[in-house]
Amino acid sequence: MNDSLLTHEPMIRGTVFALVLLAMVGWEVAARRRPQEILRRKRWPGNLLIVALDTLAVRLVFPLAAVGAALIASEQGWGLFNRVTAPAWLAVLASVVALDLAIYFQHRLFHAVPWLWRLHRMHHADLEFDVTTGLRFHPLEVMISMGIKLLVVAVLGAPAVAVLIFEVLLNATSMFNHGNVRLPVRIDRWLRLLVVTPDMHRVHHSIVRRETDSNFGFNLPWWDRLFGTYRDQPAAGHLDMTIGIEDFRNVHDLRLDRMLIQPFLSPRRQTKRKRL
């Protein structure tokens, strides 16, 4: 069972990734939330290539990834759920929730520590907000994030199936909550009690820093309410808010090469955007 899970993990994750990406692209075409000034052909090549680089980097540096770490922890008896007796369903559920809480605090850490923010700001420097924004993370950030995740998995003794469920959910919800999709207000109001919705997470991508430093959740929405970082709506409204950060606002910053070196560049103020 364990060997089978490890063998099929890339296929499971890849299949769900492709299905959710295609579904979100179709949704964005059918029910767009915001008009987009920058054409997809200027943004999507970099955003899609960066996720390919991220995947390659993780597989090279962490060949077994988080599921493999869970299997090793189980074999060695490391972590809470490998030392206490608990129903399997409870261990899986508690591990998924605990991992999500860890990602929430990790996200806050990447905003609070200057050198980590230099890595994470590449995600926020996208000049539009759509499903591919949810894939846009610097490879160094992804590897640091994986290192933190491996540590949390080992401390928890999380079951391998729980780690796989969490990884699939996190990837899928990241694409969902970055979607440029329209939801009826009533549905959004109720849905954001269970999962981070696009309107909830879009606030986090506002150019206004107090809004950027809110709504840190990717999957479960409860942590922002519990820890006082929840913001219901952007001050300017979803149609008039400005996406991104004050620096790196030229279209050429959306190229893959510029994205990769961005953490090592000094911030600059740009009052005019290059013509599209």
What does this structure look like?
Keywords: Membrane, Transmembrane, Transmembrane helix. Pfam families: FA_hydroxylase. One of its GO terms (biological process) is lipid biosynthetic process. With 276 residues, the chain is mainly α. It has one domain (2-262). 59% of the residues lie in helices and 0% in strands. It contains 12 helices and no strands. Helix 2 (40-61) packs across helix 6, helix 4 runs antiparallel to helix 6 (139-156) and helix 4 (88-112) packs across helix 7 (160-177). Residues 269-276 have low confidence and may be disordered.
pLDDT < 50 stretches: 269-276
Give the overall silhouette: globular
Q: Helical region count?
A: 12
Estimate the strand proportion.
under 5%
Biggest pleated sheet: none
The Rg value, from CA coordinates, equals 19 Å
Helix content: 55-70%
Q: How many DSSP-defined strands?
A: 0
Distance between the termini: 52 Å
Number of domains: 1
User: Which structural class is indicated by helix and strand composition?
Assistant: mainly alpha
Mean pLDDT: 93
Order of helices and strands: HHHHHHHHHHHH
